[in-house]
Amino acid sequence: MHNRMENTTPEVDLYHVPLQYITDHKEGVSIPEQVEAVCKGGCRWVQLRMKEADREEIIRTGCVVKEICRRHGALFLVNDNVDIALELDADGVHLGKEDMNPLEARRILGYSKIIGGTCNTFEDVVDRFRQQVDYIGLGPFTYTTTKKRLSPILGLEGYQKIMDACRKEGIHLPVHAIGGIRENDIQPILNTGVTGIALSSLLKNNKDMARKTKDIIEQLKIKE
Ligand code: TZP
Ligand code: MG
Questions:
Q1: What is the chain's percent helix, strand, coil content, to nearest 5?
Q2: Can you tell me which family this protein belongs to (predicted)?
């Protein structure tokens, strides 16, 4: 199989953007404020995830978040909704298993946009790779309350198995671990071969989101 990066054209090399922040509701801190904080801390990849909001609210918030991301040179992706990603002219979309097929999303958004897909098993990875996604979100690492209807937990062993199988089968693409990741998990997770992490709670639940983001980025750099 080929390296996905050979036949796509996102302007950014996703292997080199190892931290993705996934937005969530936080009492007293709006989503734009969250995004401003993580960008200030050095995060360069934001996924707008607003599971409880209607289309209008997502668009309204997305316009503001996109401008913050642009100002900081951060990628701005939208969760689930290809049509909202299109309307906002986002950098891309992240698609779960119940969302639009990535090939269809590609047809709609074009080759310059980033399309990511959720995976829980090696079979999912093979499917997503064949559907020409630019990166995958692989998880959950462990239990988290951020996502409802969580897929089976992978743990370190799960990541190791899947990443080994990817290497064996020649599947090379950026892989972000996701789901319940705490600070002490980061190095062991990276050691399995994943190329980055996607975080919500760990950053969101910190009083100083910018500072925590900076700390995490330092840890991700050590790996390089
Ligand atoms: N998918 C699996 S976990 C998750 C998504 C979108 C949210 C992030 O999890 P956490 O534990 O809040 O970092
Ligand atoms: Mg989804």
A1: 45, 15, 40
A2: Belongs to the thiamine-phosphate synthase family.
119 CA → ligand 2 middle, Å: 11
- CB-CB contact of 122 with 145 (8 Å): no
Q: Which ligand is nearest to the CA of 105?
A: 2
Tell me whether residue 100 is annotated as binding.
Answer: no
79 is in an annotated binding site: yes
Report ipTM for this prediction. 0.96
CA of 165 to the centre of ligand 1 (A): 24
Q: Are 31 and 61 in contact (CB under 8 A)?
A: yes
Asked if 38 and 21 count as a contact pair (C-beta separation under 8 A), the reply is yes
Residues 196, 208: Cα–Cα separation, whole Å: 22
Is 40 exposed, middle or buried, given 0-12, 13-18 or 19+ CB atoms closer than 10 A?
middle
Question: What's the pLDDT tens digit per position in 39-55?
Answer: 999 999 999 999 999 99
